[in-house]
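Data deposition worksheet. Section B asks for the primary sequence of the deposited chain exactly as it was used as input, without tags or linkers unless they were present during the calculation. Section C holds the resulting structure in token form. Section D is free text for depositor observations; keep each observation to a single sentence. Incomplete worksheets are returned to the depositor.
Section A, Depositor: J.P.
Section B:
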Amino acid sequence: MGDVRFLQLLDLAVGIVVVAAFAALWLRRLHSVVRLVAVQGLGLAGVAAVIGIHGHEAELVGVAVTVAVLRGAVLPGLILRTVRTSDEDREAESLINVPASLLAAALLTLVAYVATRSVVALAVEPQARALPLGIAVALIGILVVVTRRKAVLQIVGVLVLDNGIALVMFLGTSGVPLAVELGVASDVLLAVFILQVLTARMRTKFGATDLDQLREVRD
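Section C:
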């Protein structure tokens, strides 16, 4: 694979991950948001695959397949099952509206570029120039967790955050060992499973999954 084609494919895959993070702040239908996170997982797998093929690293290609299965199918599938078992398909009003969320995401992206400017300048690998976008995706994941009230979207935010961290690892270190990726993915899978159980309990007790309902437990 030539350097020009490598950078083109890498930019495409990274772009899918970033656009999916921004779109998660824009969409209101829970089914659409979860499917979008699945697309983001496939984009992340594409990043690993492109870097692995370009660098002739078979293990990294194996990691890409693992990422595609876990982050593109298994984890979103678990979240989607939670959405389907409830009667809720639209998010209630979040702490900040859509325009403010997108503006905050743009500012976080700018912060990511400023914070990693010196690191990118010292990097040798060409893919490191996209490193700020990985930081930005992780920050957007935190933004989703902080501003969204539905428990399902809290799970989505955690997954977006983890995808951003994985993107930073792929771009900054040319990938991670398969064992490490499996370990991280298992931790995320456990977190998603626990949150899924808590969501089911909230729906049984309160008839909804809005986190504001937890105030009743405190009272």
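Section D:
The mean pLDDT is 80.
Residues 178-206 form the longest helix (29 residues).
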